[in-house]
Amino acid sequence: MRLQDIITPEMKMGRPDFENTVFLLKTQPTALNIKQFALQGNLYPEPIDDVAWALPAYLSDDYNVFFVFAPNILGHWSIFCSQVEIENGNDITAMSELVPIGTGLNAINAVSPSAAIELIAYLKTWESNKLGYFDENIWKKMV
Fold it and tell me: Which superkingdom is the protein from (predicted)?
């Protein structure tokens, strides 16, 4: 077995070929199961609208990224990232366009490698709990 055969998508974090990696969900978030998607044990996704959910992934004084859960890839539920502006401690005043989780994690990795690694660990936990998985090939189906 060659090393390149055992390199999983998340092992490419920080590299350009990680940019289009997404995290596809096997389980659609609902009010009944949302606690399964907790970060740090007590941060839960909250509804953005009738469909999508948002979860603070990385917060600092000058850079904030949320995970956004929505059916945004060929009808599949996935987690994308959005940079957000926060005022007065908790008022979200702006959200960027959504980007793949690979792009978001690479951006977080550029400012805080330890935070990006911690987020990968949470995503790997969700993967082991059969909530979702990393996918770097679904983009090829959209071309």
Answer: Bacteria
